[in-house]
Specification:
Elements (H helix, E strand, L loop, with lengths): L2 E5 L9 H13 L5 E7 L20 E5 L5 H8 L19 H13 L9 H14 L4 E6 L3 H13 L3 E5 L16 H17 L2 E4 L2 H7 L6 E3 L21 E6 L9 H13 L1 H6 E6 L4 H9 L6 E3 L5 H10 L2 E5 L12 H9 L3 E4 L5 H9 L2 E4 L4 H16 L15 H15 L1
Parallel strand pairs: 1-2, 1-4, 2-3, 4-5, 5-6, 6-7, 8-9, 8-11, 9-10, 11-12, 12-13
Helix pairs in contact: 1-15, 2-3, 4-5, 8-14
């Protein structure tokens, strides 16, 4: 059986969304004729840890761990944050904003290129080169962010000449927070040059959304769309949990500042003031890291008693909560690249077969997916009136037992089916 070496920063027991995609591909690779070997960080700056994910690692898969030197410990001291730094610099508590914190962001953007794991590139590439001398593989895969993994793979490709598949779970220079890195002209040019080098050198590039496909098409010799998805095993229970009796709106995952949607919270508050039963039965359940701005928005609108702040949970427990919730909430980053955002979360929501309430741009990838599968509705970021009407409609459907909710077409996004598509690409380039 041919072997493939997968370079990924995130790996169990690290938790969070960055782990899921390649954990699940590794889980099913053997079914399609490939033996995976995983090269990963021994000490990642992970948003959470989840030992339950280890059950998805197939028996006997070789895991190579490598230490990473990162600047986040210094950054935490500068901004006064505790624990890990969340995705997009999310903070559940206010942090000090000063010229020192701004300088820390400048250092991260201009001296640590492409990202805060840049010091891992040389030692990781050297470690892989030594490993390959006695343990040959037939292909390599890098998955980012962090895009440091792609630069590690670039060095390995140049030295070993192996077929290389570069997987972009998020874009590089067009990601929403890129503009906040306080880049000099030199650093900006270097980011773009390295991005183009990766895309041009990899034998194949995989992206997760149609907009990314269009963005990178001219830069890569071969580019494929392989979306995120869901693992059917995560949603198979001996007895599915009963639906919440209350009108529960559940969001799973981080809510960063640019995912906070004051217009939605305002719409919910307005409808609650008009409908006493709705107000009484409303439960807003937030599972994961929540930025302080979200909490302040909810408190200012009198929704404090309707909110459950759950925090991070193991993935299996998250699936159970999704299955029992009346509505699953998806908040898209309010950023220039919003139309191209297609998170793994929406596919897991679809697997739970609960109505999805999304906030994002009309005509974007998520809007198109919801229309294609009849899995839910999407409201634009600032259209409070549309949101009020939509929430009223969802309340009516909830009261009627969701008789008209009939989603379809989710099976093509199962992790096993998606793994076959990755394996086919590897077969073509090896």
């Amino acid at each position: 059986m041919p072997k493939v070496l997968i370079i990924t920063y995130y790996w169990p027991p690290a938790g969070g969304s960055g782990v899921q995609r390649w954990l699940k591909f590794v889980k099913y690779f053997r079914d399609f004729g490939w033996e995976p070997v995983v090269f990963t960080a021994a000490n990642p700056e992970a948003p959470a840890y989840d030992d339950s994910l280890l059950k998805d690692v197939p028996a006997g898969v070789e895991i190579i761990r490598s230490n990473v030197v990162e600047p986040y410990s210094i950054y935490r001291k500068v901004v006064g944050a505790k624990g890990t730094i969340g995705v997009g610099f999310t903070s559940a508590k206010p942090v000090k904003r000063s010229y020192l914190s701004d300088f820390a962001v400048w250092v991260r953007g201009n001296l640590f290129i492409p990202d805060a794991r840049a010091l891992w590139i040389r030692p990781a590439a050297n470690q892989i080169a030594k490993y390959l001398k006695d343990n040959p593989v037939d292909a390599i895969i890098s998955t980012g962010p962090p895009h440091t993994t792609h630069l590690i793979a670039l060095r390995v490709k140049r030295k070993a000449g192996l077929p290389w598949l570069a997987d972009f779970r998020d874009p590089w220079t067009s990601i929403d927070y890129y503009k906040d890195l306080k880049l000099t002209r030199f650093a900006d040019r270097l980011h773009h040059r390295l991005e183009r080098k990766v895309l041009a050198t990899a034998n194949a590039t995989v992206v997760v959304s149609s907009q990314m496909l269009d963005e990178y098409r001219a830069l890569s010799p071969r580019i494929e769309l392989v979306e995120n998805g869901f693992d059917t095993d995560d949603y198979s229970h001996d007895s599915e949990p009963a639906l919440d009796a209350d009108f529960s709106i559940c969001h799973v995952g981080s809510i960063t500042p640019n995912r906070n949607c004051p217009a939605l919270w305002k719409a919910i508050s307005i409808y609650a003031s008009q409908n006493a039963e709705f107000k009484q039965r409303l439960r807003i359940r937030l599972v994961g890291s929540v930025d302080q701005s979200v909490i302040e928005s909810l408190n200012s609108l009198g929704l404090t008693n309707n909110v459950d702040l759950v925090g991070y949970l193991p993935h299996k427990q998250v699936a159970a909560i999704q299955l029992q919730s009346q509505i699953l909430l998806l908040l898209v980053n309010n950023s220039p690249n919003a139309k191209g955002i297609l998170t793994g979360k929406i596919f897991e929501y679809m697997a739970a077969k609960r109505p999805i309430l999304a906030v994002g741009p009309k005509g974007g990838d998520i809007d198109n997916l919801l229309s294609e599968t009849s899995a839910g509705v999407l409201f634009d970021f600032d259209d409070t009136n549309e949101m009020i009407a939509g929430i009223a409609k969802l309340w009516t459907d909830y009261k009627g037992g969701w008789q008209h909710f009939n989603p379809s077409g989710a099976d093509r996004y199962s992790r096993r089916n998606l793994t076959q598509r990755i394996a086919n690409i590897l077969n073509d380039i090896k």
